[in-house]
Amino acid sequence: MNLKQDNILVLDLGSSENTTIARWIRDLGVYSEIHPHDITAQNIEDLKTVKGIILNGGKNNIVDGEAINVLDEIYTLNIPVMSVNHPSAKASKTLEAWPHEEETKALLKDFVFNTCQAEANWNMKNFIEDQIALVRKQVGDKKVLLALSGGVDSSVVAALLIKAIGKQLVCVHVNHGLMRKNESEGVIAMFEKDLEENLIYVDASERFLGKLKGVSEPEEKRKIIGNEFIRVFEEEARKLEGIDFLAQGTIYPDIVESGTKTHKVVKSHHNVGGLPEDLQFELVEPLFQLFKDEVRACGVELGLPHDMVYRQPFPGPGLGVRCLGEIEIDRLEAVRESDAILREEFALAGLDQKVWQYFTVVPNFKSVGVRNNERTYEYPVIIRAVNTVDAMTATVEQIDWPILLKITDRIINEVKNVNRVCYDLSPKPGGTIEWE
Asked: Where is the GMPS ATP-PPase domain (predicted)?
């Protein structure tokens, strides 16, 4: 629901191109949302600023053995309707299918601006102002709880909610001992001035590492880390009083991957399909219609620092899946220190803006080496640097030799228990992006 931006609705009638069409409309500077086919006329009127509707049909139009359709009542709203790959005698414009990309973009531009008379007023400044107003209306004078991981999504939510409700926001940051170097300290420093006593820091490092002792199977490690995080967060929440709302960094891809009425689940996200039915909080999700690049743009507009907004994608289990096999303290520290060196040198070389994801891995085996003319028996560090668009496939970044040599020299000389550095040349498929 937006207050200032004109809105073009894409109604999901089985198309696999809903996201693409919505993105192209947003690229025109006009806001676009995707809604289920059975949205009511009243629901559309409640959105206030809908200027046009696109009925987006496709091969997934059959649900439970029957073809789905929109409600006839939406044609009574005096809003232009374009129907694509979906028979409608009632639409103001009908296409059998979307044409090639450039022609589709031209058709959308004509429909949005000429037929619907929409204004190009979709921008982050207006979006933030809208969300502040919506959050204030939803929350009133109540308190909101947010699990602040330090990731892009939760950090942007925190910054937005601070502007909206200030000290009514309570953030809990759980350090599970698997964070990158100085990461928790950076999160605390970023938000403690605005939140003061409403920023709760929980150092649960020993608790997590104790639960992980003797565990080497990757999926088991992930489950233990994920479940334990929820337990710690719940324990902290129970200590607080007067909390009626739970804020989450849910973004649009989370919703898509968790399934819609016409699309199967890709993977369930804990913040979409994994919440308990007896959840005691009302959800506050101000980013739920943003794509990842838009979340970053929102963070920039809110004044968050560049290194936080454009931080590398980081797995939920943190360094726990980059310390291969059973997590051991010496190898965990080697991962943390080598990762810090890699990030520092990539930033100096400008590669942090070029490479999609880069990190180090320390496996659970040793090799013979030499230091100060003496035999060593220590771990290797493996560097991984890949580029991807959708994370389904990935190519390896070709790093200039002098940069690799500098990184290698620093890791061998500055990181304890390490005597080799390797560079992973495996694309995806073949390898995956992460090692575990």
From this structure: 122-311
